[in-house]
């Protein structure tokens, strides 16, 4: 295997960057924060749930729609994600199923959930000066999951910005999502078939009446309008819970456009604010199409994982590449897919995070931008590995859990496969790309970074959110030496 000396050097730079994140004045983390009820899936649990639910093999296997509208559909979603080792989020559309999960399945622990909530905690720990987090609901159970930190703010009942963990809105209802985590090599059975999980991952079952319609708190909207310090980034997420139509019959497009209006209004006072959109697992195809067209033609930056990329390829008519990516979920086909989506949108930046490698495409970038982007990506990779290895980012030391670890051989081999592809497509110097991770083709800059892989991750949920937000913020040009 090739030497990873150059990557040790790049990682050391990334680590230095982390110390400078305190120079970022403000970040908005909107719109979804919720409570994650985490439950580990294993053979024994699976069998108990199945027995208690009294569903047959057919009840499960015949389910087609990606929504939890009966017990069989819950098992189908979980089985699908488990047996393929993929991340999925399915919405619960019937309140009685939420109660069933609460009573019969329960949870092992509660933790901060929702991209908005997870990112806010992570950025606050990284010492961004002001992290403003939106929460559609903020009862005590939710507020207590925000880190107790002075730089992490949300609004209370009177619309006043204050420490998020104290901004309790007593009348709000808790929004609980079930996170079923499973590990590579675990098995579950259905009838005579044994399914072995090929890759550690998670299945999310979501009941969230407020975020289902992208509820935006007016108090927060007005409080942000009045902020006087610079807000450098607005990180958007939570749209994956929309459905077409919404349960009241209205169109999700209205909600998407309303949120856009809110952000554009904030931009009047915050002219330099970069807007990033985190795609997330969006099961409703109509919503996915709307998001691609509305966000793809508006935001500055998009973040996604391999499964989300495949979902998008399907809606832009790139079935062949989507199938190739499904069959071989590795850097080469995924890169081809990423370039298709990049060309389809107008964004200046898109980032894909896959197992072992992150790839960012930039439009019209300068040499310095590419180096900053790489520094942000390795900084994010170190923190993400720290999160996986330590189980949670709760103290400053947790951020550095993975400091000094080398990138994995799997990652370097993904990078080298990508280098050969880029060589065949654009005559890129392979050796240079493998050691630097940067190349330019016309108007497009390609940045790829191999990651540190944690062999036995304590947790995986929220990993993508951490990677996307930190890569973007860590690339800020003001953090360069
Ligand atoms: C989605 C889920 C949420 C989870 C998050 C992790 O937002 O709804 O429960 O915490 O993904 O990325």
Structural notes for this entry:
With 481 residues, this protein is α/β, with parallel strands linked by helices. Helices cover 43% and strands 20% of the residues. The protein has helices at residues 5-18, 43-53, 57-61, 71-84, 95-105, 115-125, 140-143, 218-225, 252-269, 285-296, 306-315, 319-327, 331-344, 367-390, 396-399, 409-426, 430-436, 463-474; strands spanning 26-30, 34-40, 67-68, 88-92, 109-113, 130-133, 152-155, 161-163, 176-182, 187-190, 193-196, 201-206, 233-236, 274-278, 301-305, 349-354, 357-363, 438-441, 444-450. The strands form three sheets. The protein has an eleven-stranded mixed β-sheet with strand order 8-7-6-1-13-14-15-16-17-19-18, sandwiched between helices. Helix 9 packs parallel to helix 10, helix 11 packs antiparallel against helix 12 (319-327) and helix 16 (409-426) crosses helix 17 (430-436). The longest helix has 24 residues, at 367-390. It is globular and about 60 Å long. The protein binds alpha-D-glucopyranose. The site of alpha-D-glucopyranose has 16 residues, from strand 2, helix 6, strand 12 and helix 18.
Label this structure with key terms:
481 residues, alpha/beta, six-stranded mixed beta sheet, binds alpha-D-glucopyranose
Radius of gyration (CA) equals: 21 Å
Amino-to-carboxy terminus distance: 32 Å
Taking strands numbered 1, 2, ... along the chain, how are they ordered across the largest sheet? 8-7-6-1-13-14-15-16-17-19-18
Going by helix content, strand content and strand pairing, the class is alpha/beta
Ligand set: alpha-D-glucopyranose
What's the helical proportion of residues? 40-55%
Annotation, overall tally of beta strands: 19
**Low-confidence parts lasting 5 or more residues at pLDDT below 50?**
none
General form: globular
- Which percent range describes the beta-strand content? 15-25%
| Main sheet properties | 11 strands, mixed
Please work out how many helical segments DSSP would assign.
18
Give the mean pLDDT. Answer: 96
